[in-house]
Amino acid sequence: MTDMQKPRDGGLIDAFRTSIANFMRYLHALSALAGKEGKDAITLYWHTAVIAIVALLLGIIGYLLVLASIVIALVVLAEYYKLYMWAVCLAVLILALLHIVIAIICIFVAKKRIVPIFEVTRRELRKDIEALKHHG
Description:
Layout: H1 12-78, H2 84-113, H3 119-135
């Protein structure tokens, strides 16, 4: 708050008016900061939600592919003379594992992106409280 006004020599009412004006400027600056952090938080959580949805979809696809590979493996075991089915089973299993790995990576990325919101506002409030403690 570098633009704080100093009370004029008009007495108590002037000092009170100046204090109210300074307090209103402080609230305005604090609310502007909180508004900016709110926008940033919305963007961050929107991106995190998209990553989580992608992870969920890839996890479901991976699970379904694992089930398909198990079915193919059972078919191959039942009819062992169809050797080309092993290659199909292996390909589906590799694809399933790839989907699961990507889903796990997406989950870690989403967890890493989650940060406490309004951290800058909290820091500013802490600094202001400390300044008030040392001032008074």
